[in-house]
Design goal:
3 domains, five-stranded mixed sheet, Nucleotidyltransferase, domain 5, elongated
Length: about 500
């Protein structure tokens, strides 16, 4: 969803594994001014059954919360609200069905983002909360189902890692039924330490000057240390050790009556303390200060960037093109042709607006990315690269749409990929695929001759491609390709004719 240019109010919704958050802000003198904030503990991660499906009672609790958020933002313009799901929804097998209901309740699209994208957005939120200096920062965010560890400078990340351990899943795994014995704490810290072995050498190699913690877990730990005078400033190894000992001494969750600990945070604090203790040990952290900026604030700033046409996804596409040495001139030819064809049919095909043009343009720019691997089946290679790479700014569905366009720009139509998309995206993606295929075919000469000035006309349910008189007779190879295309699309239920 591409936001409109005249938006004055924006909102971000974070469907986290422990809590759901929403923030609403207005532009005031080119700055964001917060006007509303909502938060509810939903415990989504704790509601996954043994088959990784959301239990019906938890799903309903989540939908009720989203509906309350929807009362606040439903009337806001499309594209002015960015809503994302994180670790628990990345895991949930029935996430697709849940999201359809959730989008109806919210009144806006909801994306599931990767761990790497979550880390990037968290860093953006933290960076905007701090002074704009040039120091290298280590940012740590412990969520309900995952922990993000990010190194960055100013507003750009240098390295992002997302680990599958959070305060909810770690508490459920090591402190079941509220038992906080010392042996359980030792096992929890050791297990977290093992999770960190894959990243600690690379992370420490990128030496940082400042360590920042964000999210409810870390803010809660700091509040406890401060309230009990176990740390004079921020979070320290000594303060963490005292907190860990106090949890073990109390022995049970229901006995946790610590100053600075909110009652709703008590059930999951032990898992968060174990994870943070392991991080301090593995990365040799001596002091961590905290930031109020987090995923939801980062979403706001990322959305503002899109409104101002500073979309990080454009930089990602450019970087992808350079890294895989794409023929930019040919990609440009295909992009121009594809957009010209789309312009002729966008209204009748329900493809009006910025989003279809943007995705078609990206698909054209990356359609040959698979050639960096091999020529044979390069459309499959390209689709795999796009689907499975960490692509800053892109949601999971964004990447699936792009992969479908790249896989479907030649040879067989990507029926399985189209079917895997949310129902609302399937028809539009298939139609964009047709436009991209025609643009690639019309530029097969790779600039040795200009593509013909064709018209794409929709008439009584048919797509008619009208060529200049005599062009098809003079280009028998293109005619053969087009005859093959008409047969493929007829099998897909779309009538394509040439004249």
């Amino acid at each position: 969803m591409v936001p409109p240019n005249n938006v004055e109010t924006v909102a971000a919704v974070d469907l986290g594994s422990n809590s759901f958050h929403m923030v609403v802000a207005r532009f005031v003198r080119e700055e964001l001014s917060l006007v509303d904030r909502l938060r509810e503990r939903v415990a989504l991660a704790a509601g996954l059954d043994e088959k990784k499906n959301l239990r019906p009672d938890v799903e309903q609790r989540a939908l009720d919360c989203i509906a309350r958020f929807g009362e606040r933002v439903r009337s806001m313009p499309k594209g002015s609200v960015r809503a994302v799901g994180t670790s628990a929804l990345r895991q949930a097998k029935n996430a697709r069905a849940f999201l359809q209901k959730a989008e109806d309740a919210l009144g806006h699209p909801i994306e599931i983002i990767s761990g790497a994208e979550e880390a990037r957005i968290i860093y953006l939120g933290v960076a905007h909360d701090l002074s704009d200096d040039a120091s290298r920062r280590l940012v740590v965010d412990i969520g309900g189902g995952s922990t993000e560890i990010i190194l960055g400078e100013r507003f750009e990340t240098l390295r992002t890692d997302s680990l599958h351990m959070g305060c909810v899943n770690w508490t459920m795994r090591f402190f079941p039924e509220g038992d906080l014995r010392e042996k359980a704490m030792e096992k929890a810290v050791l297990a977290a330490r093992r999770e960190l072995t894959a990243i600690e050498r690379h992370t420490k190699a990128l030496a940082w000057e400042d360590c920042i913690g964000s999210s409810g877990t870390i803010l809660s730990i700091e509040a406890i240390l401060r309230a009990n005078q176990w740390s004079e400033r921020g979070i320290t190894p000594r303060g963490l050790k005292k907190l860990r000992k106090e949890l073990v001494d109390l022995g049970r969750v229901e006995r946790l009556q610590l100053a600075g600990l909110a009652p709703e945070r008590a059930p999951v604090i032990a898992g968060g303390v174990a994870i943070l203790s392991a991080i301090f040990d593995a990365l040799e952290i001596q002091e961590m200060r905290t930031s109020q900026g987090a995923l939801r604030e980062g979403l706001l700033y990322d959305l503002v960037g899109r409104i101002r046409h500073e979309d990080v996804r454009d930089r990602t596409i450019k970087s992808f093109s350079e890294r895989h040495r794409i023929d930019l001139v040919q990609a440009g030819r295909v992009q121009r042709t594809a957009l010209a064809l789309l312009h002729q049919v966008e209204a009748e095909w329900g493809l009006a607006g910025e989003a279809p043009r943007t995705f078609l343009g990206w698909g054209a720019r990356l359609h040959e990315v698979g050639l960096s691997i091999a020529h044979g089946g390069y459309h499959h290679h390209g689709a795999y690269l796009v689907e499975h790479s960490d692509m800053s700014g892109f949601s999971r569905d964004d990447q699936l749409v792009l992969a479908a366009l790249i896989d479907g720009h030649r040879r067989k139509l990507p029926a399985a990929r189209i079917a895997a998309l949310p129902p609302a995206l399937q028809k539009g993606t298939l139609r964009l695929c047709l436009v991209l295929r025609l643009a690639v075919l019309l530029n097969r000469s790779r600039g040795q001759s200009a593509p013909p000035a064709v018209r794409l006309v929709l008439r009584r349910g048919e797509a008619l491609l009208v060529f200049p008189e005599g062009w098809l007779d003079a280009n028998p190879l293109s005619r053969a390709d087009l005859d093959e295309e008409t047969q493929r699309w007829r099998e897909a239920g779309i009538v394509l004719e040439t004249r």
